[in-house]
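Shipment paperwork, digital attachment
Item: protein structure file
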Amino acid sequence: MNFRLYQHTNTNNILVHEQFGFLTKSSTGKATFICVSERLDTLNNKKTFGSIFWDLEKDFDCVNDILLSTLEFYGVRHTIDDLIKYYLKNRHQTVLKDSQESYECPL
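Attachment content:
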C-alpha cells in the first residue's frame, strides 16, 4: 500500500519538493539541514532573512473526514481508501499534555 500511495503522489505531482516527511531518501533531518544551510548562506552574504515556524501538533490531534476527503480529492480511491477507512473505524486517540490534560478524539 505504501508503495502504491507513494507512486500515486509522484505520478500526479501532488507533493511539493519541500515535503520531507514520509518520503524515500528524505527526512526531517534533511529539512533541518537545508534550513540551517540556507540561513548560513544568507548570513554569509550579509543579507537579512525571516523565518516562520508553525507547530502543527494540534493539526494532527484528530484524524477525521478531512483526511478521507483530501485523499479522495487527490484521487486515492478503492482498495487504499477502503483500507484507511477500515483502519480508522471505531478507533480513538488520546493526546496527553504534560501528563495532566487529556483529550480524546474519535478517529
